[in-house]
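Standup notes
- HV: blocked on the assembly model, inputs below
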Amino acid sequence: MHNQLKTYCKNIVPLTDEELKLIDTHFEVQNLKKKEFLLQDGKVCSSIGFIVKGAIRHFHIKDGVEKTCDISFENSWVTDFQSFTHNMACVMNLQAMEDTILLVIKKENLYKLYSECSVYETFGRLMVENVALRATDIAMSLSSDKPEERFNNLLKNRPDLFQRIPQKYIANFLGISPESLSRIQKRIHTKSKS
Amino acid sequence: MHNQLKTYCKNIVPLTDEELKLIDTHFEVQNLKKKEFLLQDGKVCSSIGFIVKGAIRHFHIKDGVEKTCDISFENSWVTDFQSFTHNMACVMNLQAMEDTILLVIKKENLYKLYSECSVYETFGRLMVENVALRATDIAMSLSSDKPEERFNNLLKNRPDLFQRIPQKYIANFLGISPESLSRIQKRIHTKSKS
């Protein structure tokens, strides 16, 4: 279980065997059944999870309506970043879309890892850079792309999403109704045949 | 000039006098006249700037139309994060809205600083965390808040914006027309009087 995370880390920063062993002691396995929650809004999020297997949907609730912000698969990190960083009640829900296995590190263990071993600090910075890049990307797309463009980008960059996740969640992630998603798909299908 | 950045850094991480001196040698002063560009789209962004005085507007151009993504004032960092991290041609434009003074660090100097002095690596991680938090916040707001809510949040969190930046850029940042912004302002003004 921990080996998958070790391989992931070694591909990003150079780590000695001794440094790699810290992963065994600092991360705990957590299993979620499909539909189970890793995190629910209103609580303070005090850990970060690495998905070994499965899928996690990130959503928040606005005026009683679910808004899907992201969907993460294997080898991704999941947390409510705002809550984790500032000890605030979180607004995000993290729910398993399939039976899911995670490796979870508690905040205090992560910060201990950073201070004990500077290569993990570098690793942490690079991981946060990815969070920043992804969030910037989503914000730019939301501010200027039409639904059809966002659908095309998703199809290009995340084809696995369409294999594994029910259409209604993909529509929700795109901020459109399932009917609009069907229409876009039909239109693109017709275009590609003509 | 460099003292402002030193004070800023000392408030975030503990730094010895020797570590603080690295700021003098790694950061260069850059002056921009109002309307001048720190960065234009199509180029690779290889530096990060700290605003000592002034204002920078971040915008990208979509189908010939400017989309304002952010507006930064004193004691903020500015860069095209995607371009800086992945050496890609940048999509962002960074333009001075007032006469602006920056302290700029080149990428190679920043990475040298990180490897020479681990406290700067911690500082870097914390700064990137802020970028991630801000981008997540903007993305969440764009995906679920109505223009009037986004206007209210802006008024609450960034009142300085309304003092220093022409209305048309604030409207553009909110993703609405200047006329819609006027209508929202009038409506709120009427509500607050009744």
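- HV (later): unblocked. The domain at 2-144 of chain B is CATH 2.60.120.10 (Jelly Rolls). The interface with chain A takes residues 60, 62, 67, 69, 81-82, 85, 91, 114, 118, 121-122, 124-125, 128-129, 131-133, 135-140, 142-145, 175 of chain B (CB under 8 Å).
- Next: hand off to the docking folks.
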